[in-house]
Amino acid sequence: MHKDVIIVGAGISGIGAAYNLQKSCKTKSFSIIEGRGDLGGTWDLFKYPGIRSDSDMHTLGFRFKPWIDDKSIADGSSILKYLNETADEFNIREKILFNHKVVSANWVSTESKWELEVRDANNSTNRISCNFLFLCGGYYSYEKPHQPRFKSENSFKGLIMHPQFWDESLDYSNKNIIVIGSGATAVTLVPALAKTAKHVYMLQRSPSYVVSAPEEDVLNLKLKKVLPLKLAYFVTRWKNILSTYYMFYFARSYPEATKTKIINMIKDELGDDYDVDKHFTPSYKPWDQRVCLVPDGDLFKSINNGTSSVITDHIDIFMEDGILLKSGKKLNADIVITATGIELNVLSDIAINIDGVKVEPHNHLAYKGMMLGGVPNLAFSFGYVNASWTLRADLTAEYVCRLINQMDKEGVSACMADQDARAEADDNYIDFTSGYVQRALDKLPQQGRKAPWRNYQNYLLDIFYVRIWSLKDSVLRFYNPK
Known about the structure:
Layout: E1 2-8, H1 12-24, E2 30-33, H2 42-45, H3 57-60, H4 76-89, E3 96-97, E4 100-108, E5 113-120, E6 125-135, E7 159-161, E8 176-180, H5 184-194, E9 199-204, E10 210-213, H6 218-226, H7 229-253, H8 255-270, H9 276-279, E11 292-295, H10 298-304, E12 308-312, E13 315-319, E14 322-325, E15 330-332, E16 335-338, E17 351-354, E18 357-358, E19 366-367, E20 371-372, E21 378-380, H11 389-410, E22 414-417, H12 435-438, H13 459-468, E23 476-479
Parallel strand pairs: 1-2, 1-6, 2-3, 4-17, 6-21, 7-16, 8-9, 8-16, 9-12, 10-11
Antiparallel strand pairs: 4-5, 5-6, 13-14, 14-15, 17-18, 19-20, 22-23
């Protein structure tokens, strides 16, 4: 099989990419190759209690498909339903090849095409080729989460489970549960489990920033009563884009003031008697790591009503019936959930080669945060760390469409961002200290000290880069093979 474009991944990025190709590159054939049996990516994979968006759905949703649900912070099943509706409404599902995983891709320079090795559910190998390869497989490994081992954990007689592999048949009613972690997954799991469990402990080595936000967007609810649906969605979307932009850059400019405001908000939620300094005051500055969002303060409510507790301590050893902490305190448990994070993948975990020579992503600069220097006809989708994933994924898809159309206009079969000898790699460009990022620094593509080799994590600036400014610069080369 040969296609003009192959999209890898049928999650948010892949569905958005397919929509844009259909809209802007109508003569191009394409397929989406999806390793799993259904679309949805993250929202089909994760099944743990309480799974929901960690940003508002008016920006996590597509610009072309209004989010009409009243809840702005939505549960996983609602998001999955939305993605399925989008795929069906725009006839995208029929373009998806399910249960096929791209293992490797080799660029054949003389023919200006990618040759893909694809394995199906029976582990049989298929050969598929394309002119342009668009990687939309997300940012983390589906098979291998971050799961550190703890001393004597095999002695624990209860169940130990990572949320990424949640067993939906698990009955945790009237059970004592320890959730190890302090990130977005932990703060989601704890209040959801606490509705049924006997008691839930959130065991953390150090706190994260946690902010309460309304589950429903009040302005959006009002606008939907007086404006057409699409217009109400557009206004709410841009209100949220601008407010998120403002809050992030205020936090970066005035970290201490932002920290004080967040901590005071938590004190208002938990009261003067609660040790907020110990359990909810991080040592790092706001947005050095992603801020955790809790809808309508559900985590704080579960703490206040006594169904959950936050314990800030270090694990000493697992015991038969719980965990002994370094402080000497013991937590009894029937179930331990290791919400210890994810492992980043790079280029959808596909082995990339050029004429049989392996490409090491870390040895290449990232061009505009979506292409690799020296690698032709390949783009990857990677969202923002300071805003909704979809905002960046959508812009990347638009850019790829412009790129493909420009190749046709130039009458060429290849385009590539030439490695620029004058572009210095900036080893300190990532000031995002989350563990999953830091663990992957030796794998991620490098960034330079200035554009176009630097990703500024700025949606407003990226709009100009993608939609307005010329594609042509001193780096991007359009050519035919010799």
